[in-house]
Amino acid sequence: MKKIWITGASSGIGQALAIEYAKRYQHSGVIISLVSRRSEHLQSIATQLAEQYQTKCYTYACDVRDAKAVANAAQDFMAKAGAPNIVIANAGVSVGTLTEYEEDIAAFQAVMDINVMGMVHTFQPFIGAMKQARAQGEQAQLVGVASVAGVRGLPGAGAYSASKAAAMTYLESLRTEMQHHDIAVTTVAPGYIRTPMTDINIYSMPFLMDVNVFAKKFVDAVEKQKRFTVIPWQMGVVARLLRFIPPVLWDKLTRNAPHKSRHLK
Predict the structure, then answer these.
(1) Which positions ≥6 away from 107 have C-beta within 8 Å?
(2) Fewest C-beta in 10 Å: which of 18, 43, 108, 237?
């Protein structure tokens, strides 16, 4: 029986992952924990998975910025189901930010707290139990969702780009730490995925991928225990090229780039 914990599960990538795991392990058995701030959405998804795939779900309405709330939810899940095999830190937000505006400071803080510290809060309560489970031969894997946006700083997205760059570096550090305990750590860096988060973008999104297609490729990468992967692969090529663009050229290329809305919901 596979046990999976997913944050940001009430919509977008998180919801698609829950559906994909329920579908993929319908016959072999899976328990999924759905975590998000929106309890009504979680209950709806849990009901859908139970009816369509006979999947047992536990739902937890909490904010990943609240370390104590996440820890309490983790302890409740482990008391009922045991240590999870896969923990997916997917919760994240994207919003335009400009340092020149004092009112954007709160948005900077929120993005960093959710996208970076939320990942730490998600993993921390499980590591001890996962070490023990791994020592007994159980699968143990931590998965973090970063973004291609973390490869280079994008104009109008200082908070988001910085948070995803920090997430990638954090996950790499975590991977080097967890190798001593044989716990896999996977970093998934999405490109443009069709979700409510990207639906509001008013600019062109190359290689835009349907979220359900993305979820299948995501789960495939996790099953292969890849250390780092970019989905779709075309954005992986773009990401590698971006690393080699000289700063002076990058400044020219991004001079008139469109900005995301500055209003954090």
Answers:
(1) 95, 97, 159, 262, 264
(2) 237
Q: What is the pLDDT of residues 13-29, one digit of tens each?
A: 999 999 999 999 998 99
d(CA 88, CA 201): 25
Distance (Å, rounded) from C-alpha 172 to C-alpha 227? 8
Which segment of 123-127, 199-203, 240-244 scores lowest on mean pLDDT?
199-203
CB 21 within 8 A of CB 5: no
| Tens digit of each residue's pLDDT (9 = 90 or more) over 168-185 | 999 999 999 999 999 999
pLDDT band at 254; cut points 50, 70, 90: confident
Residues 103-113: tens digit of each pLDDT = 999 999 999 99
- pLDDT tens, 34-47? 999 988 899 999 99
As a whole number of angstroms, the distance between CA 100 and CA 170 comes to 28
- Nearest of 69, 94, 77 to residue 12 by alpha carbon: 94
